[in-house]
Structures
1.
Amino acid sequence: MKARSDIAAMIGSRICHDLISPLGAIGNGVELLSMTGVAQSPEMELIAESVENANARIRFFRIAYGAASEDQTIARAEIASTLAAAARGGRLSYFWEAEGDQPRNLVRIAFLVLQCLETAMPYGGDIHIRRDGETWEITGEADKLKIDEQLWTSLISARKRVAVTPALVQFMLLPIVAQESGRVIALKLAPERIVLRF
């Protein structure tokens, strides 16, 4: 199974790498146009905002779906800026409360959890990410959650795996990546709160 997730991670890394350069070029082009005195139009603002949003998603996806090994770390500043960019203009607020640099493979698990939580929080809410020693706890809180219980319980039971669409691939990948890192996922579902530990 590890070989399959490694291939998926390499594909994810490759796609993110190949997309980031043209997006950067578009962003640079918009900036150059603004420096040459071209009036800031709603169309130019839309292009600039779209490039910024696409860059934010790709940075997020690179961490969640890209290759990650135990000996790699990711700086807290990079994590914070990625989450801030992902939250900009959205309904979710992320609170990264884990101090210092973190192992990339564990941050990858955390970001896959965040992707799962996004599906249950279409109306917005707060997501808190904490690390206490070796234990990570991620809590999603909202006044209104949309919980597919069968999908969520598939994270903790191999017998309850469900077929997923591409939009929900994080639910299939999360238990595999967690197991490869020697982590077991614990889940608690409540009407206004979802808590995952690993």
Note: The chain has two domains: 1-67, 71-198.
2.
Amino acid sequence: MIIDDVLDEALRLYKPSQEEERYLMDLANTIIHQAKECSINYNGILKITLEGSLAKKTWIRGREEVDIFIHHDSKILREEMEKQIIEIGFKILKELDGRPRLMYADHPYVEGRIRNVVVNIVACYDVTPPNWLSATDRTPYHTKYIIEKMKPEVRDHVRLMKAFMAACRVYGAEIKVRGFSGYLAELLLLNYGDFNNTIRAISKWKPPIVIDIERHYDSVDELFKLFPNQPLIVVDPVDKYRNVASAVSEKRLCELILASKLFCESPSIKFFKPKTPAVKISKFRRKMLRRRFVGIVFRISKWKPPDVLWGELRKSEEAVKKTLERLG
């Protein structure tokens, strides 16, 4: 199959229609209006903005999210900011018939669904680079950077890359996946220009890989000292001391390189369609018994935010691994 035909078909699957875009922007504006109403009686709130892939027009169908950021004065204590975002986030979602729940990243935020769309209400400080007070302070600058630097025609190429990564199960920087964030995918496209160039470049990657779009550093040796033992280094254009790819595990990196090689050799729409392997439990048990396999099942007694839960599971996995290695 000709590669252009494959990409056209993939774009039909994942590029939102104008009607879908209007629907999401309408929802975002409604949430921002409600956020302003709910924030009136709180101190230190300076502005409320739409961020993320919706603001940058790089989201893909099936992964719609509305990211609303509430900017706080830098004089507000972190504890107060966290308390405010929880209260405001729950108010916003309840007022709009959403189902809020508390989530955690660098600090708490509120997630919920409104009209079947994931909504995130996030706090940040209104600061200028490089005076970051929290991890989310960079996000508005990420949005601004992509909007200013990315040509409109490249947005669809970003969508193709995100869809490709999602189908390969390497999309997402959360602890469960340890893969490529949306912002990282956008930076790769800015660096290489279009989907074809990007996928060909990735297929030839040999770790460690270094990408410094804004040329913050004169030599790769500086970067290797700053970010030691990292297979992929992508310098954040808005923060020279941050590696955007720090969450990417070596396993996920190798999986993307292999998938890119296979796609370049034989382009097919199947690379854009996630496939769930059908595994019969009885067959799996028989195979494992023959291998004298021992499995550990962790029972979850109550709901926890995914990053918290997966962080605990990763630590438990590492502890078991070290114990087994020590005991031989």
Note: Residues 21 and 261 are 33 Å apart (CA to CA).
3.
Amino acid sequence: MRVALLGDGGVGKTTFIRRIMGLGESEGATTKLEVYRLNVDGTDVVVYDFPGQRELFESISKLNFDVDVIIMFADASDMATFSNLTYWYSKMIDMGISSKPKFLVVNKMDIELVDPDIIISTLPSIMDPIAVFKTSLINMDQREVAGILGEIVRMVNRYSNLTAKPY
């Protein structure tokens, strides 16, 4: 299963995957595509951690990526990261992956300055995520963060089994 992490810089994409992998904190912004491989409940997962800076993302997004799942990230303390989800969605369209299952992780709930439920309700219906995870990654341990990815993988696997065509 190939998973793309998309969202503005500083919203927690790299913290999310590095916490799951048991790696230390990253130093500075992600400046290139980072690829992580892991096994989640028997499913081989490849995670593409895209940089959140638009100019860096633009050059990478021109490559041909085929992903199965998109995890979008927003920051509960920064309204712009929610409105910028429309930019990231337009990039999904450009990359030909907009029809893939989408999930939303709203990070930094410990310093929430905007009500994510209100913001999420204003997203275009086509962007509607399957599930929303409200988190505070800085306050979560490896097991808790891995549980989010595990739940996403299980949901996608369940959906895939339901829609699989019999041979």
Note: The chain has one domain: 2-163.
4.
Amino acid sequence: MSCAEEIIPLTNIEFSKELLSGSINITGQQHKVWKIDSMSIDNVGQVLNNSQLNYFQKFDAFGSWSDYDGLSGVWDMPTQNTINIIIGNNTVEYYDVNVLSFMLKMKRQSEGQTIEYFYKINN
């Protein structure tokens, strides 16, 4: 008789977290960098200049976050389609999050407008 390790499947949230940030498993990738691809404000596509197209967000599997602008903080995914990023005393709340292995889409409200971001994996 062999000693078989029981494999416990990931929950939907755990799976989404791994797609977003990598795996805490030592053999896996422990962070992911998402580079902006496009965005819209109130469903109107925006033209991004070359500098804006350099923008990225980095999500670490252990919960740290940073971006192109040099900001850093922590992130959490309380539900499969929400992400909260805490920078100092401020929380940025994203909703309608859809994360795949190659693409990240998320929205947030700002000054009464709906901003939708589309990112592609960069690492």
Note: The chain has one domain: 29-121.
